Amino acid sequence: MMGVIYGMEISSIEDDPNDKNRKLLSRVSFWISIIVSTGIVVWYVATNPPDSKEVQNMRLFFKNNSRDVSVFIALPRDEMKAYAEKKKHPFYKGFLKKSEADRNKIRAMIHISIDYTPYQYWFNMVFLWIIAFTTLWFFGLMLEGALVIMKKERVDRIRKMNSGSGSSETKKPE
Please, how many CA atoms are within 13 Å of residue 167, restricted to the half-sphere of its CB? Predict the structure, then answer.
């Protein structure tokens, strides 16, 4: 099956005598994409471990009591003390004893914990792997396509040189 696109002759994979090499390169590209994607996810998990059980429990507390916690952190310091006295949970009293830097970290954690689920981290890792794999595989396919085009152009150039020199026989490059 042959086609012409923009004056360039394009052949299908079936026409290529080096079909075995192309299939091998395609398989190598696929498996390299899988291995490198897995490596990226393992590296990310090693450098950014999942939350500890204590942090997960605190984030679930923030999620389940988001309204009370949001009201509490928005109060002035004096009113915070009175509010903490009414509540039984140790978070309220512990928050008052923390340094300003720790309170800011807790405020940020409250903000990101409103829609928290305990398995969110692993769900994100699966999608990180999918994104890394598809990106790497796409680049591999683009590289493979570029190599096929370059090989076709090289063959065409050699055919033109051989036909221009008066040779009746067309030589095919190895």
Answer: 11
**Quick one: what percent of the chain has pLDDT higher than 90?**
30
3-class DSSP state for residue 156? helix
Question: What is the maximum span of the chain, computed from C-alpha positions, in angstroms?
Answer: 100
Nearest to 126 by CA among 40, 51, 39, 41: 41
CA atoms within 13 A on the CB side of 104: 3
Tokens describing residue 118: 């305990």
pLDDT tens for 81-128 read 888 888 888 888 888 888 889 888 988 888 888 888 888 899 999 999
Nearest alpha carbon to residue 159 among 174, 173, 145, 146: 173
SS3 label, residue 174: coil
- Judging by beta carbons within 10 Å of its beta carbon (0-12, 13-18, 19+), is residue 62 exposed, middle or buried? buried
CA distance 87 to 51: 26
Helices (H), the chain: 19-47, 53-64, 66-74, 77-86, 90-97, 100-112, 120-164
